[in-house]
From TrEMBL, chain A:
Broad class of where this protein is predominantly found: nucleus
Organism: Sphagnurus paluster
Alphabetical GO biological process terms: assembly of large subunit precursor of preribosome
This protein's name: 60S ribosome subunit biogenesis protein NIP7
Keywords of this entry: Nucleus, Ribosome biogenesis, RNA-binding
Keyword field contains Cell cycle: no
PANTHER family attached to this UniProt entry: CYCLIN-DEPENDENT KINASES REGULATORY SUBUNIT/60S RIBOSOME SUBUNIT BIOGENESIS PROTEIN NIP7 (PTHR23415)
Automatic annotation (TrEMBL), chain B:
Nucleus keyword on record: yes
GO cellular component, one term: nucleus
Name listed for the protein in its UniProt record: Ribosome biogenesis regulatory protein
Region (Disordered): 75-102, 163-209, 255-315
Organism listed in the record: Sphagnurus paluster
Family stated for the protein in its record: Belongs to the RRS1 family.
């Protein structure tokens, strides 16, 4: 576990800024408790200072995970966001897309969002902008990148892709979220072995 | 009455406070050192080494004390203190002498031709302003031609001749040429020691060949005294650094990222001002865009939509 270098922080911040823009400052400079980014086994964790200090005493091979995993660095040095960052992205997202109930399952199976499934979209969303995908009940499902700007979507046919999916929560998690007490949200069906 | 016996015994008991040597002792009170340059008395040395050394040391200390008592003193609560003069002994230099800088091409040429180096002043006299101005840099004289409000244009100049740009280009060219010459000088100085350059080259080649096998050098036969190849070790901040400092650095990085518009996606302007320009244009032009709005504002009659709809009823 170590702090990010400047290049690494730059990569992480640019990726996050694509989704939450200037709200990124709220992640770095938090009012409630100091939080920081830590790198462990190529994964970037967003962790409170107190947990980080506890984690210092754990040997590197024994430390599985700490705080919230935001994503990982690929071997070529690119940063990839994981769905585990969804909580924070959804909280601060600048541009959002809501999809209709009949579009939830296709999205959660890894398909792109087509126009037929589009419920609502933030006005003035530009092209190739990171957006967080919500269900109509305002439950965050995942995030993606817009294929067209909001204005352009009006003219498209219903099968045209609106949002390229980047990451999604699997349906099991959604079931947990729907249940009154979401006890174990750690079951990410598809990627659970590689996610942490 | 003969007192010589008593005197002799007294002298033996309290040795004289003056030290008599063939070569006088060299005393440096500044360093509190005494140097005895006399050759060693072999007889007494072989007879009793301990006694010989003690007597040598005693003489030295005696000479030092004698010199200390001649020094000016200063009173202090702990009694008088002697004021030591600055040391006389020259200590050897701790570091080797700096190597002379390699000559630049111009310096070599000037030395061969016997050209004297003239120190050029940083300031230059400006006749018009009647004051000293910088030769270069801020408000430098070398930028005068491109900054003056009127410039003479040569008769045979092109139509698109821009005297300011020409002067600026010429200046930039001079700077670039100088930089190029500097780089060449540095390269020439680096190549001056071919032995070092060759050694580095060989080491690099050797390191490359050692990992250029199918197993990346893992299963190769090791030679005696072969060193392990070490790369550049990465250095990271400590994990237990203050998080507040880290946050500060992150905020600074963020502000730098925002200012660097080339690397990050440009924020839409709507966020900066209260008015969402794109939305306002769309609303005002009824969704036809800014161009149509501009055309309408320029002249209502020329707009296609206005004529078609507005005055159609009068026909």
């Amino acid at each position: 576990m170590r702090p990010l270098t400047e290049e690494e922080s730059k990569a992480v911040f640019t990726k996050l800024a694509n989704y939450i823009g200037k709200n990124l400052i709220h992640l770095i400079d938090r009012q409630d408790e100091p939080y920081c980014f830590r790198l462990h086994k190529d994964r970037v964790y967003y962790v409170s200072e107190s947990s980080m200090r506890l984690g210092i005493s754990v040997a590197r091979p024994n430390l599985v995970s700490l705080g919230t995993c935001f994503g990982k660095f690929s071997k070529t040095g690119k940063f990839k966001l994981h769905v585990t960052a969804l909580d924070y992205l959804a909280q601060y997202a600048k541009y959002k897309v809501w999809i209709k109930p009949n579009g939830e399952m296709p999205f959660l199976y890894g398909n792109h969002v087509v126009k037929a499934h589009l419920g609502r979209i933030t006005e003035d969303t530009p092209e190739h902008q990171g957006v967080v995908v919500f269900s109509m009940k305002d439950i965050p499902l995942g995030f993606g990148v817009t294929a067209r700007s909001t204005v352009d979507t009006r003219k498209l046919d219903p099968t045209a892709i609106i949002v390229f999916h980047q990451a999604y929560v699997s349906s099991t998690v959604i079931r947990f979220l729907y249940s009154p007490t979401p006890s174990d949200v750690g079951e990410y069906l598809r990627d659970e072995d590689t996610l942490f | 009455m003969d007192v010589s016996n008593i005197l002799a015994s007294h002298a033996a008991k309290y040795q004289s406070i003056t030290v008599e040597k063939e070569t006088p002792l060299e005393v440096d009170p500044g360093f509190l050192t005494v140097t005895d340059l006399n050759p060693i008395d072999e007889e007494s040395y072989n007879e009793n080494l301990e006694e010989h050394l003690q007597s040598l040391a005693r003489d030295g200390i005696q000479a030092l004390y004698a010199s200390l008592f001649t020094l000016p003193t200063r009173t202090s609560p702990d009694g008088p203190l002697a004021q030591l003069p600055p040391p006389k002994t020259q200590l050897p230099r701790a570091k080797p002498l700096p190597k002379p800088k390699p000559q630049t091409k111009w310096e070599a040429f000037a030395a061969a031709k016997g050209i004297q180096h003239k120190v050029r002043d940083r300031k230059e006299w400006d006749e018009e302003r009647q004051e000293w101005v910088n030769r270069w840099g801020r408000n430098g004289k070398n930028k005068q031609l491109e900054e003056q409000w009127i410039t003479e244009v040569p008769l045979n100049a092109d139509v698109d001749h821009d005297p300011r740009k020409a002067a600026r280009d010429a200046r930039k060219e001079r700077v670039a040429k100088n930089e190029k010459k500097h780089a060449q000088n540095v390269a020439r100085a680096a190549a001056a020691n071919p032995r070092d350059a060759r050694k580095q080259d060989i080491e690099k080649t050797l390191a490359t060949t050692r990992i250029s096998t199918a197993s990346m050098g893992k299963f190769d036969k090791k030679l005696d005294g072969e060193k392990k190849i070490r790369g550049v070790k990465r250095k990271f901040d400590p994990t237990e650094k203050s998080v507040a400092d880290e946050a500060k650095a992150s905020v600074a990085l963020l502000s730098r990222l925002e200012s660097d518009s080339k690397k990050t996606r440009r924020e839409p302007q709507a966020e900066e001002s209260v008015l969402n320009t794109r939305k306002a244009v769309r609303f005002a032009s009824k969704g036809r865009g800014g161009l149509a709005l501009g055309r309408e504002a320029a002249g209502g009659r020329s707009s296609r939509g206005g004529r078609g709809r507005g005055r159609g009823g009068k026909r």
